[in-house]
Amino acid sequence: MPATVIVGLQWGDEGKGKTTDFLAEQVAMVVRYQGGDNAGHTVVTGDEVFKLHLVPSGVLYPHITSVIGNGVVVNPATLIAELDMLTARGIDVSKVKVSRSAHVIMPYHVALDRGNEARLGEARVGTTGRGIGPAYGDRAWRIGLRMEDLLDRAVLTDRISRVLPDKNLLLGAMGLAAMTVDALVDQCLAWGRRLEGYLDDSTWLVQAALARGEHVLLEGAQGTLLDLDHGSYPFVTSSNPVAGGACTGGGIGPLQVDEVMGVMKAYATRVGSGPFPTELRDEIGAGIAARGHEVGTTTGRPRRVGWFDAMPLRYAVAVNSISSIMLNKLDILSGIPTIRLGVAYDVGGRRVEHWPSSASAIADATPVYEDFPGWDAPIHDVRSLADLPENARRYVTALEELAGVPIVLVSVGPERTQTIERAWRPMRHRGGMARS
Ligand code: GDP
Ligand code: IMO
Ligand code: MG
Questions:
Q1: Do residue 341 and residue 378 come from a single domain?
Q2: What is the Cβ-side half-sphere exposure of residue 426, based on CA atoms within 13 angstroms?
Q3: pLDDT band at 411 (very low <50, low <70, confident <90, very high)
Q4: Residue 13 annotated among the catalytic residues of the structure
Q5: Closest Cα partner for 113 from 75, 146, 147?
Q6: How far does the centroid of ligand 3 lie from the alpha carbon of residue 57, in Å?
Q7: Cα–Cα distance measured from residue 289 to residue 283, given in angstroms and rounded to the nearest whole number
Q8: Do 68 and 98 touch, CB atoms closer than 8 A?
Q9: Of all atoms in ligand 1, which is nearest to the CA of residue 419?
């Protein structure tokens, strides 16, 4: 029963969309297990660029069943727009399935997320403003709406009537307009009518695929360092991007996972607030940001850029039980004379080699770097490890040694085929059927 989890090892935007699309060719099903439309996953095939927020990144292949699992929070308006965009571009969305029990991001969640951020001022998290925190908050408080509720006027009226007075109080306190039960119920029913044909029991869909011996990919959103439990709280998202989240949010058990592939890029980025010890505020950082097009897929905000930091990498490898790694965006480092790699921290004069659990220790950490000579030649067209410049190979080997896990795929450009397969046992040669 082979299931592979794809998980971000950094602060998101590691190239999970590219990785998922690259691996999806060989599998039957791709499942998103957490997050919502805060995610922005880019897939590039030939001249075509697709930016996906909710639909799993396997959707470009006609044979794939694309599942939005129970752990995702769904803004129905975003989902409908994405399905329409894909259809208009000739992509078949008839195999997209949405869990009936996925929670709904309501208009008041979006308004409260933005209102709260405005109220926090300088202390803001820098959320994507998509209502993620308030929607997961209501889910935990057991006052959320689920996708199946969108089909039932009586349930909608009852639930919304109960929660809306509190929401309107908060909206009022933030200087925002109140909402009405009738308008929300009508909006929800319209969403329900449009999405009814996509709703399904996602857990049994995934379990049935695994029981047939089909290969299932579980596509994480965000990254380990934005995890609600493992990230730098409160500068985190409100779900569990780590591999464990694939079980709760994708409808599988831990023993059904036979590979956890971590995705990381050759440097680091972060969108929004929060500690980032290896952040670069100089011309080198600006150059990486420009060459790497480091602008948020969802919000258009510039991403903060820094050197690769092996401290959180070791932590991420441990908490996800990473078994292999895909290294993306190695091409962006071409032309930098000296590449720095964070290998430890200096915290108050003490060398620390473990990612600290204390937020203040991370905030006070000064990175200890190892320097690597760079390489000049562009590497976009390289397709084998042997053809990479020697200094690039040395850098990859150093990352691999620090991770303690094989780097099996190296990406040298955004396009599907700009990928080096290294020490890689393709899924089709492993147990289980590649496709239905
Ligand atoms: P995700 O959220 O993890 O899926 O990542 P994003 O799609 O938000 O950001 C990654 C960006 O880098 C996208 O624009 C990708 O097309 C691009 N990308 C992915 N891999 C590579 C690579 O190896 N080289 C270059 N130059 N771009 C890449
Ligand atoms: P993908 O899947 C990068 C960040 C936000 C903010 C914090 C909380 O494309 O990698 P939220 O809206 O989730 O409440 O914001 O998390 N964030 C991301 N950063 N990539 C993402 O997704 C992100 N999704 C949320 O910038 O710092
Ligand atoms: Mg992204």
A1: yes
A2: 12
A3: very high
A4: yes
A5: 75
A6: 12
A7: 10
A8: yes
A9: 23
Span 337-363, pLDDT tens digits: 999 999 999 998 999 999 988 888 888
Which residues fall within 8 angstroms of residue 253, CB to CB, at 6 or more apart? 247
CB 351 within 8 A of CB 368: yes
Residue 70 has pLDDT above 80, yes or no: yes
Which amino acid residue places its CA nearest to atom 2 of ligand 1? 13
The whole-angstrom separation of Cα 8 and Cα 348 is: 30
- The rounded distance, in Å, linking the Cα atoms of 266 and 429 is 28
Find the residues whose C-beta lies inside 6 A of ligand 2: 8, 11-13, 38-41, 125-128, 130, 132-133, 221-223, 226, 237-238, 271-272, 297
Clarify whether residues 172 and 284 are in a common domain: no
Burial 330-364 (b: 16+ CB within 10 A, else e): bbbbbebeebbbbbbbebeeeebeebbeeeebbee
122-145 confidence digits (pLDDT tens): 999 999 999 999 999 999 999 999
Q: Identify the active-site residue in 41, 109, 215, 230.
A: 41
What is the atom index within ligand 1 of the atom nearest the CA of 8? 3
**Atom 20 (ligand 2) nearest CA:** 12
197, 219, 240 - which closes a domain: 197
Model's pTM, two decimal places? 0.96
Residue in 298, 329, 407, 422 to alter for ligand 1 test, most ligand atoms within 8 A of Cβ? 329
Q: Classify residue 115: in a domain, yes or no.
A: yes
Residue 435 has a pLDDT of: 41
CATH number for the domain including 171? 1.10.300.10
Q: Which amino acid is at 95?
A: K
| 409 Cα–ligand 1 center, Å | 14
